[in-house]
Amino acid sequence: MKSTEIYSSTTHTWIVLGRDSQKSEKIIDTNQYLIKSNDEAIILDPGGIELFSSMLASLLKHVKLEQITTLFASHQDPDIISSLGLWDKALPHATLHAPWLWEGFIRHFGMDNIQYQSIKDEGGEIKIGKAALKFIPAHYLHSSGNFNVYDPKAKILMSGDIGAALEKNEPPMFVEDFASHIKHMEYFHRRWMPSNRAKNNWVARIRELEVDMMAPQHGRIFKGEMVQEFLEWFARLDVGSASD
Amino acid sequence: MYHQNDATLAIKNVVRVANIIANLDTILQEAKNLSLTAKNARVVALRAGDSAFGFKPITNFIDEFSELTIKTTKSISMLSSNLFEIALSVVRYSDFQLRLNIAAQYTEHTDIHHLQQQGRLEFIRTVKQLESAVMHLEGYFEDILKQMRSAEYIAVTSRVEASNAGEFSESLQSVSNFIAGAAKNIKHAINENLKEISLLKGALR
Best mutation site among B106, B125, B126 for testing chain A: the one with the most A CBs within 10 Å? Predict the structure, then answer.
């Protein structure tokens, strides 16, 4: 699994882990994010069971196991958090922050040791070492209980499935040309996202934030102008295509 | 060292526990029917009066061991749900070990080695828990088996008593047949479970 540092300051660092060459082609490719600050670290959307081994090995290149104090699951999907039963053994003292809506569901992945910290619908905040992070509501995009993670200092928005692209092989880490990237995103957003109202609310909410980088859970990361281009494109997009 | 086989074996153990639990329902149902039969037989024996004099203590005896069987089966049910939990825990630890071994192929980091050791210890602890629960379970089943041997003996004795009960002979005969049938079904279910337990014990060794 590749790991790339996407932000670093005196207080904290963001690393994206993904493009796992060992994984089966039948499994959707995912981006996992590690934020480390001082002696603490959080994994955002730790991934599925199938990725656990390569994730663990890659993480240990950047942090010690005992530094990983926190996990975050944007929603309940298997590619997001089905590895929980294994992290529960590796990180028995960790806390999982995830939507309150999914607690009873996520516990099905196996959780004897890790503590579940519910995130309320309106969102919340968390500190990892010196990094202050915000949980931004992104309900119905696509999951009915869903959050993004915003880092006001790094100006990074971990956007979960929003901005996701389905590309084969190993695409580059960043979007280089927005227009040519649309074909990899359009079907995903039209089919997976159910609500135009939720989408428009989210766009308005994100426009109030300063975002230099938008980091989705699948595909390439949006940087600089690409973020605004995405917001404009997404605002215009009609979603919920299967209901037509 | 762990292999894919260990994980498969752990899953098979869960299936064996599931089979044992499924058989428990048969045992419990037959034991409840036995208890009901004992109560009916007591009424018939009372109506038959002196001609079924020898049948009354038999009905008390049936009642007694059917209650005992119900009680033992309920204890087994409680132990079984615990058994399920432990068997599942063995599955999870064995999967954890398997995934750690894969991670160890990517890196020689000491944390992985430490997790492997820790996981192995936890795995051994849960396997021992499972072994102990299985031994307990075996003991319970052997108790019921003894009760069923008594039931079969009673079925024979009650047949003799039933033949002396005049016009009530047929009703009491059917009670005897029912006891024999229920004891046979319970014994069959228990023998099936003892076979599963033997396989489970073999797998845990």
Answer: B106
Give contacts of A49 with chain B, Cβ < 8 Å. 99
Mind listing the pLDDT tens digit for each residue in B113-132? 999 999 999 999 998 998 89
In 3-state terms, what secondary structure has residue A21?
coil
Give the residue-averaged pLDDT of A105-134.
97
CA distances from A196 to A204, A212, A238, B132 (A): 12, 25, 7, 57
Residue B4: band (very low, low, confident or very high) from pLDDT cuts 50, 70, 90: low
Q: Which of A89, A93, A108 to mutate to test the interface with B (most CBs of B within 10 A)?
A: A89
Token pair of A64 as six digits: 């010690």
Complex confidence, ipTM:
0.84
Per the listing, tokens 């996701």 go with: A164
Chain-chain contact of A86 with B99 (C-beta, under 8 angstroms): yes
Question: Contact B96/A90, CB-based, under 8 Å?
Answer: yes
Domains of chain A: 2-243 (3.60.15.10)
Across the interface, whether the CB atoms of B106 and A58 are under 8 A apart is answered yes
- Token reading at A167: 């590309």
Mean pLDDT for A64-78 is 96
